[in-house]
Amino acid sequence: MHTPTLILLATSTVAAVLGSTIITTKVTPSYWRATFSHPPFNLMDNALLTDFFSLIDNIAGDPDVKVVVFDSNVEHFFIAHFDVLNPVSPDLLGPAYWGNFTRLANLPVLTVAAIQGIARGGGAELSAALDVRFGSKEKAILGQFEVGFGAFPGGSGLRMLPRLAGRGRALEIVLGADDFDADTAAQYGWINRAIPDNEFADFVDKFARRVAGWDRYGISYAKSIINKSGYPTVEDVYSDLLAFQAAVSQGAVPARLKAFAEAGFQSNVTFEKNLSSEELRFVGPEPWDS
Ligand SMILES: *[C@@H]1O[C@H](CO)[C@@H](O)[C@H](O)[C@H]1NC(C)=O
Ligand SMILES: *[C@@H]1O[C@H](CO)[C@@H](O)[C@H](O)[C@H]1NC(C)=O
Ligand SMILES: *[C@@H]1O[C@H](CO)[C@@H](O)[C@H](O)[C@H]1NC(C)=O
Ligand SMILES: *[C@@H]1O[C@H](CO)[C@@H](O)[C@H](O)[C@H]1NC(C)=O
């Protein structure tokens, strides 16, 4: 969701459409915005992942950029989740998946998730893989809902959440499979802080401009040392992706996902907004009450 501030800024800056699902705006040469623009849900599908990985190439190839803020212009959603109903290409969900995230994490550039909507599943995992996360108190929702349909987070959540939130809270997040508001997510360390929505755009913009003003030398050295505190390995996350793919084809999961799809999963905004509660209708063996 574009904020009034950003629209004002955008009139004086260069906006480039990369593929079609992510709009890159160079607010200044050192401060970029990458806006997920793949309605109605910003699903992580072939198109969005392809554009995301190309964007990483562009960031890596630009000597001036120091900060990239990721946001969304899709109402209600930051990134809803992975496309679970249509197979995502193995070129994108093989070792290349975490390879690209790792490449981004290792660049001397600060990445910021500016979350003013729903970020569940892969959307929560993408946010957690960036360097810094800010959430709107009123609008941000984070959730790992995968255990609720019979699988588990397969795109790094199981590796990243214990690092960010600790073991107990990671288990609560993953096994409860419920939604978290920004205040609770911030208290748990899942996001950096929760900000009232009417102050959100200003706060994020000031932070980004402040960092973008510093010399690259300091940013790069600091990041190289903080880097050593660890990031999940490509091998580990690839094995989680394979395990996730196996999980969605076993037990009741295929039938449940089919029933989900019929009820509105990946098609109905009301269903998607209330997904963590809707899941409760599909507990146990089929047939499910509708
Ligand atoms: C990023 O993804 C692309 C597309 O799948 C792939 O060709 C490339 O090797 C990946 N990069 C890394 C560093 O894994
Ligand atoms: C972070 O660490 C990786 C792996 O050691 C390294 O390749 C990368 O250059 C580092 N990033 C920075 C900004 O120094
Ligand atoms: C969308 O989902 C909601 C909640 O499950 C449901 O009440 C509504 O009828 C659905 N709308 C359509 C068009 O299917
Ligand atoms: C969300 O879903 C639950 C379970 O299906 C239902 O009881 C509840 O009324 C729904 N809430 C909204 C706001 O649609």
Explain this structure.
The chain is α/β, with parallel strands linked by helices. The protein has helices at residues 4-10, 46-60, 90-93, 95-106, 122-129, 157-165, 167-176, 182-188, 197-213, 216-226, 234-247, 253-263, 269-273, 275-278; strands at residues 14-18, 22-28, 31-36, 67-72, 77-79, 110-115, 118-120, 132-136, 141-143, 179-181, 193-195. Strand 3 (31-36), helix 2 (46-60) and strand 4 (67-72) form a beta-alpha-beta unit. Helix 6 (157-165) packs across helix 7. The two termini are 33 Å apart. Mean pLDDT is 93; it is low at 1-12. The structure holds 2-acetamido-2-deoxy-beta-D-glucopyranose (4 copies). Residues 53, 91-92, 96, 99-100, 103 line the site of one 2-acetamido-2-deoxy-beta-D-glucopyranose. One 2-acetamido-2-deoxy-beta-D-glucopyranose binds at residues 264, 268, 270-271, 278.
Can I get a quick summary?
The protein has 290 residues and is of the alpha/beta class. 46% of the residues lie in helices and 17% in strands.
State the main characteristics.
290 residues; seven-stranded mixed β-sheet; four-stranded mixed β-sheet; 11 strands; globular; disordered N terminus; binds 2-acetamido-2-deoxy-beta-D-glucopyranose
